[in-house]
Amino acid sequence: MKQEPTEHEPTAGVTAPVIIVGAGHSGVAVAAGLRARGWEGGILLLEAEKETPYERPPLSKELLKEGAPDESAVLRKEKFYEDKRIDRFRGITAESIDRKGATVLLSDGSRHAYHRLVIATGSRARPLTVPGAELAGVQSLRTRDDALELKRLLVRGARVAIIGAGYIGLEVAAAAAAKGCEVTVLEFQDRVMSRVTSEPVSRHFERLHEQHGVRFIFGAAVTAIEGDERAECVVTADGTAVRADVVLAGIGVLPNQELAAEAGLECRDGILVDGDGRTSDPAIYATGDVTRFTSPIDGASQRLECIQNAQAQADRVAAHITGQHAAVPEIPWFWTVQHGVRLQTAGVRHPEDDVIVRGVPADGRFSVVYLRAGRLAAVDTIAGLTDFRPARKLIAQGARIDPTLAADPGIPLTDAIPTDANPTDPNPADADPVTARI
User: What percent of the chain has pLDDT over 70?
Assistant: First the structure.
């Protein structure tokens, strides 16, 4: 997505504020970034929830643990918003955008002019649409209220059925098993985390969960949730019925792009933005989970659902609005913790990448590197970070890697570069759409 450069107006003389729609990681980071970069004009942050903006990754991790406090860590303390003169409308959303008049209509009926508008509306849990999905006990997990209700339901002896073996589903499975629940994970694919990692990593985490009493059913197409007033069982296409008191739908997310789409901004499974976070309207930016952009690493069209990308995009938006230079984009990275074992990923794996295992998975600590046309494209590290930092640098460099050397865990990745490699060779472009999730 290309645009002509726009002139940046100085703060002096700007009467309308920068309005930020959404108070998740990216929206708050834009507000903080504007002030850090010297923006003296108004900033208005619209918060759909009425509480202080909070961290979301702990919702499926720490908050569900036995004895954990119900409060999630806040992104910034209240005093920060006061000191930085960031105005906040709580429990208020944007209903529509008048691009010609540069105004936004809010859910309380008021209309506000903007100097620049930033859409940071994030994503929502993909809804379960089978019969019985509305029964009590059927949950999704996206907000703190969702997490607190799930925490209340995860009691010793409860039968928990989790639909979807992605990060969220498996993190909840680990938390439920630790609380003494009877846990069954139903996954349509033939292995866990199939969209984001390779088979060696999937099988390692399957065994880990099974060791903690979690049962898996693969190739499971859920067709109904049955019960009178509450969920009692999950039914699959082959007639299998899994008894359940609690059902979690962990089947992915959808970008909250409706506000942008209705305003005529370009969207395609996410709001299309350029490298500075600009939409097809140069006065409107978008940032975080709701965006789709072209990767500067490999040219892929991608939507990244991770904290690192949310913060990096926010920095670029704040920089562009204030007419400053942003930092060079980081290689995207993601993490999950299941049964105390941390999986950390750098880069975005493609299914056709060559897979090289470094170490012995049975030992519980290993890495997997992914090569694309001979270059390092991504890395998974399990229960150790020895390869993580060097891999991020090599991915950014588009470094060629010798597969034989890379397969030897005793050889540092930085020493696995062929002696005849030309570091100036361009990176291969890949235009296939990619969606990566934390």
Answer: 93
Report which DSSP code applies to 175.
H
Verify that 114 and 260 share a domain, yes or no.
yes
Pair 95, 110: CB distance under 8 Å = no
Whole-number Å distance between alpha carbons of 202 and 187: 12
Question: CA–CA separation, 50 vs 48, rounded Å?
Answer: 7
Tell me if 228 is assigned to some domain: yes
Residue 72 — very low, low, confident or very high, per pLDDT cuts 50/70/90? confident
Q: What is the pLDDT of residues 115-144, one digit of tens each?
A: 999 999 999 999 999 999 999 999 999 999
The DSSP secondary-structure symbol of 188 reads: S
Domain assignment present for 432: yes
What value does the mean pLDDT take over residues 152-180? 97
Which class for 266: exposed (0-12), middle (13-18), buried (19 or more C-beta within 10 A)?
Answer: middle
| Structural domain range at position 298 | 18-124+254-321
Q: Examine the domain organization and report whether 369 and 431 are in the same domain.
A: yes
Total tally of structural domains belonging to the chain = 3
Tell me which residue has tokens 């060559």: 354
The DSSP bridge partners found for residue 358 are 367
CA 349/CA 294 separation, integer angstroms: 15
Is residue 436 very low, low, confident or very high in pLDDT (cuts 50, 70, 90)? very low
Structural tokens at position 68: 């954990």
163 - beta bridge partners?
186, 249
Cα-Cα end-to-end distance for the chain:
25
Full-model pTM: 0.91
- Residue that is last in its domain, among 251, 273, 294: 251
Q: How far apart are CA 45 and CA 82, in angstroms?
A: 12
Q: Does residue 84 contact residue 32 with C-beta atoms inside 8 Å?
A: yes
